[in-house]
Amino acid sequence: MDGDLIPLPFQRVLAPFIAKRRTPQIEKQYADIGGGSPILRYTDSQGAGMCELLDELHPETAPHKHYVAFRYAKPLTQETARRMKEDGVKRAIAFTQYPQYSCSTTGSSLNELFRRGRAGEMGDIEWSVIDRWGTHPGFIEAVSQNIEVALSKFEPSRRSDVVLLFSAHSLPMSVVNRGDPYVLEVSVSVNAVMDRLGHSNPFRLVWQSQVGPSAWLGMQTGDAIKGLARLGKKEVILVPIAFTSDHIETLYELDIEYMKEGRELGMEIHRAESLNESPVFIRALADIVAQHLSDYSLGNIGPTSVQMGLRCPGCINATCGQQKHWFARGGR
Ligand SMILES: C=CC1=C(C)c2cc3[nH]c(cc4nc(cc5[nH]c(cc1n2)c(C)c5CCC(=O)O)C(CCC(=O)O)=C4C)c(C)c3C=C
Ligand code: FES
Ligand SMILES: [Fe+2]
């Protein structure tokens, strides 16, 4: 139903129809990964760990408290907005948990937050935004360490031949072609990880989880695994690079579908663990926020980044423009 994510003709009729048709298949996938997504559990523990560190790192603004606002599952932004109002929150940071910016993810979430704010559902909050952080050294370090753990599962003599297959959620070509920044930002994260690893292994960036019949950005992760097997490159590590915790995309698609496929093709294939409760990652989250708070209080930065101010050159969604203005004024 999210017109900011994927505008459909006759959205109100077509969207529920597509969702209903898709539900049984997706219900089965969630059942297979243990009856639901662990994304809220991980996000909550990351938030709690981050706040504990932040109280030390930036005592001027302590105590810190995290709230989770999801776009499509509970706790929805609307419910979180109401809770923040009840709690009398006066200052908040919208901290996207997508490391790399896409208008289909962070953009849609900020649009929703803006709608709730404009409707007065959040009370009087001064907002600033951390809109992207895909090259933060702590994030890069945490991903790199998980790759090193996966590499250690291979026999030392074969280790340097292992192909690192970075896998990120794909985008419809219609989104890419209107100038969305995500593809560039994911690429830069991959490059930063490879620099940190000293370019020890060959690698590719591929794209997963496309839905529906329209054209999506490729190469698709599943096809890449088959292609590598065909070329005799049978040692592979799958690296999730655009997700910060486990959920259906890692636990079902990567672990159940693709790893199984790869093993059937005679490959030795492992996955770099998701960041989940990585202490290095949680420290990185705290560091990103502490830096933001201190830059903001010194007047070095405004409520939003310079880059966030620019709409995609092909954007025709008026909400994007209103949202950017609203956050640039601190949510007023
Ligand atoms: C970087 C991350 C993501 C991008 C980019 C993204 C784009 C995108 N997604 C859909 C449609 C669906 N996404 C679904 C679930 C889902 N997607 C992401 C991340 C990105 N999506 C996450 C973390 C999750 C949550 C999974 C979980 O908690 O288990 C779903 C629901 C599941 C399903 O039906 O497959 C849909 C649908 C589109 C259309 C899109 C780009 C336009
Ligand atoms: S789609 Fe990117 S700013 Fe609107
Ligand atoms: Fe998605």
Automatic annotation (TrEMBL):
The organism's place on the tree of life at top rank: Eukaryota
Keyword tRNA processing: no
Pfam families: Ferrochelatase (PF00762)
Catalytic activity: heme b + 2 H(+) = protoporphyrin IX + Fe(2+)
GO BP terms: heme biosynthetic process
Classification via CDD domains: Ferrochelatase_C (cd00419), Ferrochelatase_N (cd03411)
Summary of the function given for this chain in its UniProt record: Catalyzes the ferrous insertion into protoporphyrin IX.
Family to which this protein belongs: Belongs to the ferrochelatase family.
PANTHER family noted in UniProt: FERROCHELATASE, FERROCHELATASE, MITOCHONDRIAL
This protein's name: Ferrochelatase
Species of provenance: Scleroderma citrinum Foug A
